[in-house]
Amino acid sequence: MLPIATPPNAIAMSTGMVSVSFMAKIGFVLNIVGILLIVFAAEFYWKFFL
Q1: pTM for the complete prediction?
Q2: Most exposed among 8, 35, 36, 49, judged by the fewest C-beta atoms under 10 Å?
Q3: How far is the C-alpha of 39 from the C-alpha of 42, rounded, in Å?
């Protein structure tokens, strides 16, 4: 979510073409999508395989 998180993020940030606020916004959206995918996958697994 933040530029220091991984080397590719740091490289993209150092070019000056991507701002910290833009990376944080996109990272926040991706975090929410990831959480929803994990919750739906877990619900499906628990209902049908346990």
Answers
A1: 0.73
A2: 49
A3: 5
Going by C-alpha positions, the residue among 27, 13, 18 that lies closest to residue 4 is 13
- The answer to whether 11 and 37 are in contact (CB under 8 A) is no
Residue with tokens 């590719």: 8
3 pLDDT above the threshold of 80: no
Question: Residue 3: what residue type?
Answer: P
Q: Which residue has the higher pLDDT, 40 or 11?
A: 40
Distance CA 47, CA 30 (A): 26
H or E segment to which residue 18 belongs: none
Residue matched to tokens 């490289």 = 11
Do 9 and 27 meet the contact criterion of CB atoms below 8 Å apart?
no
